[in-house]
């Protein structure tokens, strides 16, 4: 199963990344912006237990050295995330559990939700999987550079000026929506943080799992080159639960550089690996999470309208797009 999942493990003390998929390495390097030779040379490879291990230094990680803060105003990101408006100008982030005043349940981008009763072989589900192009995706900045840029809704006018976006542009609206989502108070039992660097993402995971904890990363994998974003998918095999006592989910947000909305809940969650086959023959090894207690969620959350249920009446499950990440504790020996 591990070779078919996109998964890397983080050693709490050495920050080692155990790689089980070369495509995940490619995705992670692009996310880090490690294109330059100097950045690549900062990654040291060796073999351990027949897996490729990427060793990252515990401090002063070299990422995105080819891009300076002064160049950021030249970055023109896609506010709709390759045709998906589900984070941006139309809808609230579907993984934020607070209220929304403008969620349209007919928006196909919210077709990610299902119930635990749907977890059976042969079940057909209409699913929206956002397509991203890693080569054109935004990259993380090094922490020092990211921390030097204000990340606050009150700084919006200055940020728009800094990034050279007009006030009424789609990019300006996307930046405002991202900042607003990041500043919403967490629901009861939830810990959340919008991270602006890889270092801050790993620090957040450690704050949940423990400073010296080992933890793994799992993501969805696509097998095919289809550009279809929504179609019927059939569950091909019995879904496999990935046992995890805790989890941290990180969702990509539209911004001129990489920003992830990361959160963890004290309430029970179940993580599943689900093999899907699309109507067009595409295969997806999907990661999904089922939230067992939704009693604290806003009644306006998109999932309740899609599934036609009320908060707290049934677990809510949803698939993760390929550019969304789930961190889980590493299995103990």
From TrEMBL:
Chain positions covered by the region annotation Disordered: 81-102
Pfam families membership: BURP (PF03181)
Superkingdom, natural source: Eukaryota
InterPro entries to which the protein is assigned, alphabetical: BURP, BURP_dom
SMART domains: BURP (SM01045)
Basic and acidic residues biased stretches: 81-95
Residue ranges of domain BURP in the record: 113-330
Name recorded for this polypeptide: BURP domain-containing protein BNM2A isoform X2
């Amino acid at each position: 199963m591990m070779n078919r999942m996109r998964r890397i493990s983080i050693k709490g003390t050495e920050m080692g990344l155990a790689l089980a998929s070369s495509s995940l390495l490619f995705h992670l390097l692009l996310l880090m912006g490690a294109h330059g030779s100097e950045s690549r040379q900062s990654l040291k490879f060796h073999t351990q237990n027949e897996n490729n291990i990427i060793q990252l230094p515990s401090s002063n990680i070299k990422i995105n050295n080819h891009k300076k803060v002064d160049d950021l105003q030249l970055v023109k990101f896609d506010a709709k995330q390759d045709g998906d408006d589900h984070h941006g100008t139309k809808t609230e982030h579907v993984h934020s559990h607070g209220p929304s005043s403008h969620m349209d349940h007919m928006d196909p981008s919210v077709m990610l939700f299902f119930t635990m009763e749907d977890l059976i072989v042969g079940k057909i589900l209409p699913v929206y999987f956002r397509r991203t192009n890693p080569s054109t995706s935004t990259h993380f900045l090094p922490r020092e550079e990211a921390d030097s840029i204000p990340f606050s809704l009150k700084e919006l006018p200055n940020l728009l000026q800094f990034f050279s976006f007009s006030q009424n542009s789609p990019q300006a609206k996307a930046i405002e929506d991202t900042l607003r989502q990041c500043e919403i108070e967490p629901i009861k039992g939830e810990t959340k943080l919008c991270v602006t660097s890889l270092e801050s993402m790993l620090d957040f995971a450690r704050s949940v799992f423990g400073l010296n904890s080992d933890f793994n990363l799992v993501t969805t994998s696509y097998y095919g080159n289809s550009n279809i974003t929504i179609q019927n998918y059939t569950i091909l095999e019995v879904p496999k639960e990935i046992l995890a006592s805790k989890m941290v989910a990180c969702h990509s947000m539209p911004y001129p550089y990489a920003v992830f909305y990361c959160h963890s809940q004290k309430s029970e969650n179940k993580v599943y690996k689900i093999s899907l086959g699309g109507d067009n023959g595409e295969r997806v090894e999907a990661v999904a999470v089922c939230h067992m207690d939704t009693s604290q969620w806003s009644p306006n959350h998109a999932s309740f309208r899609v599934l036609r249920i009320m908060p707290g009446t049934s677990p809510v499950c949803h698939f993760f797009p390929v550019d969304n990440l789930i961190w889980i504790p590493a299995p103990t020996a």
